[in-house]
Write a structure and sequence with these properties.
- This protein is an alpha/beta fold.
- The protein has 2 domains: about 140 residues, 3-Layer(aba) Sandwich (Rossmann fold); about 180 residues, 2-Layer Sandwich (Dihydrodipicolinate Reductase, domain 2), CATH 3.30.360.10.
- The chain has 10 helices and 14 strands.
- Strands 2-1-5-6-8-7 form a 6-stranded parallel sheet, sandwiched between helices.
- Helix 1 crosses helix 10 and helix 5 runs parallel beside helix 7.
- About 45% of the residues are buried.
- The chain binds 3-amino-D-alanine.
- 3-amino-D-alanine (2RA) binds next to helix 5.
- Its EC number is 1.2.1.11.
- Keywords: Amino-acid biosynthesis, Diaminopimelate biosynthesis, Lysine biosynthesis, Methionine biosynthesis, NADP, Oxidoreductase, Threonine biosynthesis.
- Homodimer.
């Protein structure tokens, strides 16, 4: 089993390495690949030195699985080349997510769709993954009609330079800027670029990816995505209308027994999910579960997860595990 991590020096790439180590993912060879500026650098993994290789070199190594986290442009160009060479590509960018010939996978929800013929598998957007993890089991029971979501997203979702901008601002340093406005002590209702319909790409990812993962194009979804000066995870206020009525204790019990979901919902004791607690955790945390008293069959929830973990690295590694455990890799 030859494994490659493409984009190994980025925030998600680094997190993928941590997750591979923590989960004891087994391989015979590991190849770390990154952009030309990092080629030749040495990265330690499990006490062993790995020299960063170029993406061109990586394509010739006959790797079985490549986890890509190198951006959409790189993925559009290189994922098909790796796939043509027999590699199963698990891609963390948005390049393939809405391609009807590619699967968009959250293993706990639709891993069963994967087959040996899937050569490029899309990893969904972070803000979508954590939301569908909590909504999928409720959809099975009560059937989703409409979702209204507002996000509070960590700067880690933008990358290392964004974390640096926030830290620089905090120290009064006038450093390079990633965002069009200050991020520290601010909130930017602007994640990814704006589209002609007035929404951002991030907002439309939440709409389209949710429907694709849940396999139901009739679900109404509307999103407002906001960047806030936090690290450790994305938070989401989610208002969900169902076709069927629910009972709150049953909702709690469904969520409490959903693998990968942890209910933290004891407001009297100030217990609710927060990014400070989701940091470095693989689970999705749900709290503030309450009935929307202004509308029938409607629920409010607060969903928090480490966007670099379940929102990116962990989900990608889980897909790799699913493919190997089910002998779906050539
Ligand atoms: C963000 N969703 O947080 C993105 C990262 N994929 O900006």
């Amino acid at each position: 089993m030859k494994l490659a991590v493409v984009g190994a020096t980025g925030l998600v790439g680094q997190e993928i390495l941590k997750v591979l180590e923590e989960r004891g993912f087994e391989f015979d060879e590991l190849h770390l690949i990154a952009s030309p500026k990092s080629v030749g650098q040495v990265i330690k993994f499990k006490g062993k030195d790995y020299t960063i290789k170029s993406i061109e070199e990586g394509a010739k190594l006959g790797v079985d699985i490549a986890i890509f986290s190198a951006g959409g442009g790189t993925s559009l160009e290189w994922a098909p080349k790796y796939a043509a060479a027999g590699t199963t590509v698990i891609d963390n960018s948005s390049a393939w997510r809405m391609d009807p010939t590619k699967k968009l996978i959250v293993p706990e929800i639709n891993g069963h769709e994967l087959t040996i013929d899937d050569r490029i598998i899309a990893n969904p957007n972070c803000s979508t993954i954590q939301m569908v993890m909590a909504l999928a089991p409720l959809h099975v029971k009560y059937k989703l009609k409409r979702i209204v979501v507002s996000t509070y997203q960590s700067v880690t979702g933008t990358g290392k330079d964004a974390v640096q901008q926030m830290m620089d601002e905090r120290k009064g340093i006038n450093g390079p800027k990633v965002y069009p406005h200050p991020i520290d002590m601010n909130a930017l209702p602007h994640i990814d670029s704006f589209l002609d319909n007035g929404y951002t790409k991030e907002e439309m990812k939440m709409v389209n990816e949710t429907r694709k993962i849940l396999g139901d194009s009739t679900i109404g979804v509307t999103a407002t995505t906001v960047r806030i000066p936090s690290i450790g995870g994305h938070s989401e206020a989610v208002n969900v209308e169902f076709y069927e009525d629910f009972n709150l204790s049953e909702v709690r019990s469904i969520l409490s027994t959903t693998p990968g979901v942890i209910v933290q919902d004891d407001p009297k004791n100030n217990i609710y999910p927060m990014p400070i607690n989701s940091h470095n955790r693989d689970e999705v945390f749900v709290g503030r579960i309450r009935r929307d008293e202004s509308a029938p069959n409607t629920l409010n929830m607060w969903i928090v997860a480490d966007n670099l973990r379940k929102g990116a690295a962990t989900n990608a590694v889980q897909i790799a595990e699913f493919m190997t455990e089910n002998s779906l890799v050539y």
